[in-house]
Design goal:
The radius of gyration is 36 Å and the shape is elongated. Helix content is 72%, strand content 0%. It is mainly α and 452 residues long. The chain has two domains: 2-253, no CATH class; 276-444, Orthogonal Bundle (Hypothetical protein af1432). The protein has helices at 2-32, 39-62, 65-73, 80-113, 119-136, 144-148, 150-183, 191-212, 218-275, 284-298, 303-314, 325-328, 336-342, 345-353, 363-368, 389-403, 415-424, 432-444. The relative contact order is 0.07. The termini are far apart. The chain has 18 helices and no strands.
Length: 452
């Protein structure tokens, strides 16, 4: 009976290591394979990873490491707890450390060979496979009747190996397949969440093994092997939940970005539609939006604020929908009545954009981009800092584009003239600080690319 169990144990252990090597190879291939290298090298590395694990652990734990350590320090050890630590715990801690060092080395080699930028992702697979490997390997100190009984020892070893095979399958199906999707997505992942649990398991497993394997009670064996297997299952499930949550977050972010992109495209299309009413201002709204963003960046605003002022710039003239084409395209000087109609477009634009309840800020540019810093603008005669900041930015960008665009009665103005006009109207028409930023942008535009 003992011989049969020992043979079965050896066969299952062999099957496990072959299966484990294949699973690790498939996992790395699924997550990081780019098809540029020969798979034979990857397969050899994964086989070495599993075979060397057993060799390293056997060398550290099975070749008299404890006796060697005691032999070096026996003249200095006087306390029993120190002796207990050196004999029962230290060898396993040292073995676990070497085990982890070997795992890190193999992960680094695979990551380097696969040209993976983030080694943590490769290390996660290697360390977790290593943690599963531990519960598949039955070790005993030879103390006590139970541990000396080959049938009991082989029976527990077989059970542990079968549980480890199940754990490998669960890890691959639940975690690796989902993890592979993350490998090709640019996402910030807190790798401590993934790496600390299996690393801690490997180190603590060795310490607990050193403490429990000196006892004879069957309960300690169950605690060490079957409880640790359940802990591995728990880790796998926890990783699955974490990875699934990351995926759900990614999908939500992706959906948000798609909606944002669609919204911007709709706003740009609407801006082109508005500008099409005037044959001399085609592209005006897009250019104003672009210059507004450049000013916002120059002023040191956040990316979100820079984006927001861009959107407001796109829609700042939306109120011109309500202005008759004959007035917009008039080639003669506007009458007082016609100019009065033109001056209604900020209010019309505000009325349209105010209906977008999810983005009430979009109406700011449309409503107040014709206000003047000295309070002589329209529609409300606001002055100074009472004018919303973004509206002051758009006002400068709007005037700049008006001066640098062709009209029916003139060609776009030179940079010197535009610069002079901006300086002349600082503190009257324009916010001085924003006007100075626009002048700085002009100075940087050596080739005068910023015009229609």
């Amino acid at each position: 009976m003992e011989a049969q169990l020992e043979f079965i144990d050896l066969v299952i252990q062999l099957v496990y290591y072959i299966f484990s090597s294949l699973m690790l190879f498939w996992s790395l291939s699924k997550c990081f394979w780019d098809g540029k290298k020969n798979r034979i090298v990857l397969f050899i590395l994964t086989v070495l990873a599993n075979s060397m694990v057993g060799l390293v652990f056997a060398l550290m734990c099975g070749l008299g490491l404890a006796d060697a350590v005691i032999g070096l320090f026996h003249f200095h050890i006087t306390k029993k707890w120190v002796m207990f630590f050196m004999i029962n715990i230290f060898p396993y801690m040292l073995a676990g450390s070497f085990y982890l060092a070997h795992t890190f080395l193999m992960a680094w080699l695979c990551g380097k060979w696969l040209h993976v930028k983030n080694y943590n992702s490769v290390l996660f697979l290697f360390v977790t496979f290593g943690a599963i490997n531990l519960v598949a390997v039955f070790r005993d100190s030879g103390d006590g009747e139970l541990l000396s009984n080959m049938s009991a020892r082989n029976g527990i070893s077989i059970a542990c190996t079968i549980m480890a095979i199940i754990a490998l399958l669960l890890f691959y199906v639940l975690d690796v397949k989902a993890f592979a999707k993350l490998a090709y997505v640019k996402v910030k992942v807190n790798w401590k969440v993934f790496l600390i649990p299996p690393i801690a398991f490997i180190l603590l497993y060795g310490v607990i093994a050193g403490l429990l394997l000196t006892y004879e009670e069957f309960l300690t064996i169950l605690t060490l092997f079957f409880f640790s297997t359940m802990l591995i299952f728990l880790l796998i499930w926890a990783f699955y939940v974490i990875i699934r949550n990351i995926h759900e977050t990614n999908e939500a972010v992706k959906a948000k970005e798609e909606v944002k992109t669609l919204s911007v495209e709709v706003m740009e299309a609407l801006a082109h539609t508005i500008d099409a009413k005037d044959e001399y201002t085609r592209g005006h709204s897009v250019r104003v939006a672009k210059y507004s963003r450049m000013l916002a960046e120059k002023l040191g605003l956040s990316k979100e604020d820079c984006d927001n002022v861009y959107y407001m710039g796109l829609l700042h003239d939306i109120g011109k929908i309500g202005v008759p084409n004959e007035i917009i395209n008039s080639k003669s000087k506007l009458t007082d009545e016609e100019y009065a109609v033109i001056k209604t477009h900020p209010g019309v634009g505000y009325g349209i954009l105010d209906e977008i309840k999810s983005r009430p800020d979009l109406s700011i540019g449309a409503h107040w981009h014709h206000e003047r810093y000295d309070g002589k603008g329209y529609p409300d005669g606001k002055a100074g800092e009472d004018i919303p900041y973004f509206a002051r930015i758009i006002a400068v960008a709007d005037s700049y584009d008006a001066m640098t665009s062709n009209r029916s009665y003139r060609k776009y103005l030179s940079q010197d003239v535009v610069r002079s006009e901006l300086r002349k109207n600082e503190g009257t028409q324009f916010d001085p600080k924003i006007a100075e930023c626009m002048i700085e942008l002009i100075e940087e535009d050596k080739d005068y690319k910023m015009h229609e």
